[in-house]
Design goal:
The structure holds two protein chains of two kinds. Chain A is mainly alpha-helical. Chain A is built from 17 helices and six strands. Chain A has a single domain, classed as Orthogonal Bundle (Cytochrome-c3 Hydrogenase, chain B). In chain A, 49% of the residues lie in helices and 11% in strands. Chain A is globular. Chain B is globular, with a radius of gyration of 18 Å. The chains are: A mainly alpha, B alpha/beta.
């Protein structure tokens, strides 16, 4: 047989592909410079910091109560959790005991925020695999949560909800009605959303095995929150270091086994049910009492008292001018944020503002694992991996 | 679940590294130990592999600047968490601002990679041996370290704002 001469000689040829900074599928501003061999990702190089706003520096100049709006802008899908985390950090520094009612009100708000956060994340995974319906559908339910925020604090996205020591006002009858309606009506909507995606063959084929990470690697990379739990470790700050009376509630921590996109999706789905359970328990057992703790140095007195009562006027002035005394010390306080352990490391030198405030942003820490998770996979898998990690640009860049 | 006390951790570290522990303080339930910067890798590996303590999770790394502490101006603060014992621990190392060098801990905890880059970015602390010590959140062209205390937040050339009116 004659040997056929061939001049074809395979040499791998790599293509550079810029995924981002402004790419519709990255849901935020971050860049990945991908080295591609055909459709396979060989390497990824990340650039972050596009919306860095120097919050840590700003916080060193502002009185404590003015830091709350900064925390709104970290994970803006669940701002109330960030706000509450910050209030609790300052309360820990001051040694404030909050009444049970405050704790329960906070828990209702925080768990609603968690539902809103997970709704966005999970429905966006659907969008990235081509299922827009779920996204448009659950957005109405996020709207309803935002309506509840609006009843509580007047704002919707960047909420600045609550104050150091409690909440700015008690739940209004309209707010209680809305929460009640939400508890009653949301399960049907979540079931519908579940039916759209959870056992959907196309969705499962697209997400199972996409962007997996083992529990050891996840721990090494500092994963927390749903992403770590999807890999199989049941670490949840709400259970490990209960804050705000979480120990009073009955809920389970859902975990996955594979750490892939589908597991992350499923963990978030289950967490929404658990959050709803917590909201329901807190709502039904909402204790009577004050909606603020006794910290006149930080909690603004009622406005009508300010006009007629000398003491209230003095405290009002002191708070607004940021003249309140704080102890010297350093605290670390962590809350279970929308996507992991959101920590505040606060160093106080007794001055009006923090000497140093560091945000432990879960996104920033686990996003560094992204190249390892997508190497060897296709571009389309890389997209769903990113959306399932719930990387929020505001939190990533602080 | 077993729990170990902060005193036990401090004892274990002091026994193993008698010259390294400079100061310790327990505040708000968390033990905070100041150790010599040179020993940080050894201490972290010891804590991570210790059969009882098992500090297996690096929560956070961040910098801090005390311009008045001569010779110990810049600090690196490590927050550790032992999941098995549910104990948190804070370690601090200080380095002089003339030679702000400390060994990277990426060999012990990979999560430190970006956090050390962030610390370098804002405080200029050089992490010796770090795989990719470049700026992360600020622009590459930046030639100063913005979170150091010598860079005040507000524009100091402004004359229309008198600090004394604002209680500063």
């Amino acid at each position: 047989m004659e040997k056929i001469e061939t001049s074809y000689d395979y040499k791998p040829e790599f293509t550079q592909l810029n995924l981002g900074p402004t790419h519709p599928a990255t849901h935020g501003i971050f860049q990945n410079i991908l080295t591609m061999d055909g459709e396979i990702i060989v390497n990824a190089e990340q650039t972050v910091g596009y919306i860095h706003r120097a919050f840590e520096k700003i916080a060193e100049k502002r009185p404590y109560y003015q830091v709350t709006p900064l925390t709104d802008r970290l994970n803006y899908c669940s701002s109330p959790i960030n706000n509450m985390g910050w209030h609790m950090t300052v309360e820990k520094l001051l040694g404030v005991e909050t009444p049970k009612r405050v704790d329960y009100m906070r828990i209702i708000i925080m768990e609603l925020a968690r539902i809103a956060d997970h709704l966005i994340c999970n429905s966006v995974i659907g969008v990235d695999v081509g299922a827009l319906t779920g996204f448009t559908y659950v957005f109405q339910w996020r709207e309803k949560i935002y309506d509840i925020y609006e009843e509580i604090c007047g704002a919707r996205l960047t909420t600045n909800i609550g104050r150091i020591g409690g909440l700015e006002r008690d739940f209004s009858p309209a707010c209680l009605k809305k929460i009640k309606e939400f508890i009653a009506e949301f399960p049907a909507a979540l079931i519908e959303f579940t039916n759209l995606l959870e056992r959907n063959r196309i969705f499962m084929d697209r997400t199972i095995g996409a962007g997996p990470i083992s529990v050891d690697r996840a721990l090494a990379y500092g994963f927390t929150g749903p992403n770590l739990r999807a890999a199989g470790l049941d670490y949840d700050v709400r259970v490990m270091n209960p804050y705000s009376s979480y120990q009073d509630f009955d809920f389970v921590i859902p975990i996955g086994t594979q750490g892939d996109t589908y597991d992350r999706f499923m963990v978030r789905q289950q967490e929404m049910w658990e959050s709803l359970k917590i909201v329901k328990q807190a709502f039904e057992n909402l204790p009577e009492g004050k909606f603020f703790a006794d910290v006149p140095d930080f909690f603004l007195p009622p406005k009508e008292e300010v006009y007629h009562n000398m003491e209230a006027l003095i405290f009002h002035f002191k708070i607004v001018m940021g003249e309140a005394d704080v102890p010297v010390g350093e605290v670390y306080h962590a809350v279970e944020g929308g996507n992991g352990e959101l920590g505040y490391y606060l160093v106080s030198d007794g001055g009006r503002a923090a000497y140093r405030l560091h945000f432990r942003r879960p996104c920033f820490i686990y996003y560094q694992a992204y190249p390892e998770m997508i190497k060897g996979s296709t571009l389309s898998d890389a997209i769903v991996t990113m959306s399932s990690m719930n990387v929020i640009a505001g939190e990533l860049d602080a | 679940m077993s729990t170990i006390s902060n005193g036990y951790i401090l004892n274990e570290i002091s026994e193993q590294f008698p010259d390294s522990v400079i100061d310790s303080l327990e505040s708000y339930g968390m033990l905070s130990i100041e150790v010599k910067a040179n020993d940080i890798i050894a201490i972290l590996s010891f804590l991570k592999t210790h059969p009882q303590i098992q500090m297996n999770f690096l929560t956070d790394v961040c910098g801090i600047h005390y311009p008045d502490q001569i010779g110990k101006e810049l600090g690196v603060v490590y927050h550790l968490h032992s999941f098995t014992n549910n104990v948190r621990l804070r370690l601090k190392c200080f380095v002089p601002s003339e030679k702000p060098e400390i060994h990277t801990i990426t060999s012990v905890f990979e999560a430190a990679n970006w956090q050390e880059r962030e610390t370098f970015d804002f405080y200029g602390i050089e992490f010796v041996g770090h795989p990719n010590l470049t700026r992360i959140l600020n622009v590459d062209e930046m030639d100063y370290f913005p979170l150091r205390k010598e860079y005040p937040l507000e524009d100091q050339t402004r004359t229309d704002k008198d600090d004394s009116y604002f209680g500063r």
